[in-house]
Amino acid sequence: MLSIHKILTVITLMLFNPHQAISSQSLAFSSIVIEANYTIEYQYTINSTVEYVFLYPVSNVTARIEVESNAIIDLPLIVVVRQKREILSWQIPLVVNIYNKTSQTLCSINYNQSGLEEEKEFITVTLSTANCENILFKLNMTKQYDFYISPGGKRNVQISPSQPIYYGYTFPGQTESSSVIVHVQSDSDICMTFSIQNTTCPVFDLERNIQFSGYWQTVNQQGGITVPKQQYPLGFFVVLVVKSDDTDCYGAPSMIPLRNKQVYLTINPSITKHDYVVASGVIVSVIFTFCIAYVVSVVMLKIKKERKIKQELLDQESEQIDEPVPSPLTVQESIPHRSISIEDEDDSSLDEDDIDLMEDALDDKEIIRTKLVLSVCDLARKAPKILRHKSRLYLYYLITVSIFYILPAVQLLLTYQHVLHVTGNQDMCYYNFLCAHPFLSLSDLNHVFSNIGYIMLGFLFIFLTSSREHDEFDREKNKCYGIPQHYGLFYAMGTALIMEGILSGSYHVCPNRSNFQFDTSFMYIITVLCMIKIYQTRHPDINARASVTFAMLAFIIFVELLGVLNDLQTRCPTWV
């Protein structure tokens, strides 16, 4: 059979290229089969005329193969590993940074079983090359007894682009925690990727295919992924792969020649559901109790104030009944004395000879300036109804802007979260992974939940504003003291605080640079509204128009957009 193959090969070469026809003797090719043993290092010479086949008996323990050769990149050494349901192949040296030593973890027989038992199974390792000259290779296969990590277990490993590694984890049968945190830490700045994959074969443990399965994350010094038990009930693999350059971490390739990275891998149980519910309940209870206590105190003070006013009115009525009715002459004599005392007390520049004293001056706005004592409220030229309407426009504009701003933002961020779960790309969102606690479809519920304080305090602020607006005593008091109250501004400030909580929570659904402005837009609105209110405290008639104010805010957010689009090196001053 071999001679027939040689004759056909010679005939083919003579037909297509007769000048390069070679003799059948130079086409001699042989395969050397060796029944290999674990932990024994095999070292041989190989060329294009020979092929080595090593047969390792299948074991229940996970195996790891290591191959080293002095082959060149143009004529590499080809390594093929055949298992029952999986075939792996690679070349030495690797094209990535030209590594002459490679290591691979083989998928365990526990995940490679097909249900049919055979008498004897082997892991077949085949080595071949197209190089006519002799090259050396070393082959060693060992059993990895520390493949499975126990809860709280640690691993200290050294990896490189040519020597990836992965470990297995199985959830205990009875445990209080329903999830674990996979923590990766290193003192080196070399960029790497670690992935959480299901316990199936093949395992994607190369740089070119690690993103094909499960969840993956790019890390330089520290990273973590929370893995829920309900998503991986049979356990999972933790895959560690060093990248060929640091572009994904720093935006530019690194000049580090040897990309060996020391990694510390730890898997710890996460907090239990009971602890999570207790912690969340305590926070909600504290905020809710504060708001309820504040509301109750405001209501009690209001009731106490009303009772005090009623008591003063009753005392005044009783005093008027007991006192004799003054004569007209007494009234005329008392009026100048009253004006002098008020003038001395308030240092008023008004002269009572220049105005007419009229009893209805407090009721008729047209003649309000005939009062002896003027307040800022009396100096307003616009009617209170007009000022109230202009102030309310801030609230109406804010509600309209909020609806058209929040709905697309929430839709976009929920879409990001869906894409994260579908692709497994955790680089899309910049979570604090070691503190993130997933819940349902949210990857980080606690940072979304933490914004509930903004919402509750916003409602509290609106309640206080409404309580003060409808207080008749404060309303009468404001006519004699202070300025016209623009309650629409206060309502807008409270509403902006609520919207800040909603948008900040939406931003933390999937935080990244492209949606950072969702978290900051209403911060600008709250700041501008506070500045307008401060200016209004001494300018009763002069106030910025709501339409002009929101147009200015639109320009500010546009400038912030420029900062988002620019690179880190050319970032606008808005981000500083």
Mean pLDDT: 76
Total count of strands: 18
Structural class: alpha+beta
Helix content: 25-40%
Count up the helices: 11
Radius of gyration, whole Å? 40 Å
- End-to-end CA span: 78 Å
The main pleated sheet reads as: 5 strands, mixed
Q: Can you tell me the residue ranges where pLDDT is under 50 for at least 5 consecutive residues?
A: 1-26, 328-364, 568-576
- The assembly state of the depicted protein chains is single chain
Tell me the fraction of residues in β-strands, as a range. 15-25%
Order of helices and strands: HEEEEEEEEEEEEEEEEEHEHHHHHHHHH
The domain count comes to 4
Q: Could you say which overall geometry the principal axes of the C-alpha atoms support?
A: elongated
Order of strands across the main sheet:
1-3-8-5-6
Signal peptide: 1-23
Transmembrane segments: 276-301, 394-414, 448-466, 487-509, 515-535, 547-565
Pfam family, one: SID-1_RNA_chan
GO molecular function: double-stranded RNA binding; RNA transmembrane transporter activity
